[in-house]
């Protein structure tokens, strides 16, 4: 059967393949254009996202929207998802095993279906999930393998004004890259 972004979302809603399913209210498969040239990958659903079933719904979503606008696009032009689709207990970071399980089962397939030209990795969990190594502080604002663009997670920008400024610069660089896509 050919998979679509909708059939994958159905599978995600039933998934119990890593321990994170036990604490979730709703899964957060992702949201946006299923033919988008740009895909953004965050970390994991937070408390608000877990209640709504939508990615970047709370305050971090407002920050992300501001950043996306700096790149000259809006959220509706993108597809946004997380490295894992279920809310980790007490907002802890997803483990490496949980990241690997969710990527192999769902994230890789979402990428295969959407076929984005550029994948924006927001923060260290997304970076670890897709690349397996690297430090955000050293590679943010840069492209890896012409396919991934690395930047901070919006929640880091909310906590540290200097990171917010760096993230704004990253999204301005991203805006220039997108014009060439
Ligand atoms: S985080 Fe991913 S792999 Fe784990 S239960 Fe949720 S959908 Fe399944």
Features:
181 residues; alpha/beta; Uracil-DNA Glycosylase, subunit E; 6 strands; binds iron/sulfur cluster
Which fold does the CATH topology refer to? Uracil-DNA Glycosylase, subunit E
Helical percentage: 40-55%
- What kind of sheet is the major sheet? 6 strands, mixed
The CATH class is: Alpha Beta
Explain what you see.
The chain has one domain (5-179): Uracil-DNA Glycosylase, subunit E, CATH 3.40.470.10. The chain has 181 residues and is α/β, with parallel strands linked by helices. It has helices at residues 5-14, 47-52, 59-70, 96-114, 124-130, 136-139, 154-159, 161-179, and strands at residues 31-32, 38-42, 78-82, 118-122, 143-144, 148-151. The protein contains eight helices and six strands; from the N terminus they run H-E-E-H-H-E-H-E-H-H-E-E-H-H. It starts with a helix and ends with a helix. It has a six-stranded mixed β-sheet with strand order 1-3-2-4-6-5, sandwiched between helices. Helix 3 packs across helix 8 (161-179) and helix 4 packs across helix 5. The mean pLDDT is 96. The longest helix has 19 residues, at 96-114. The site of iron/sulfur cluster has 16 residues, from helix 4.
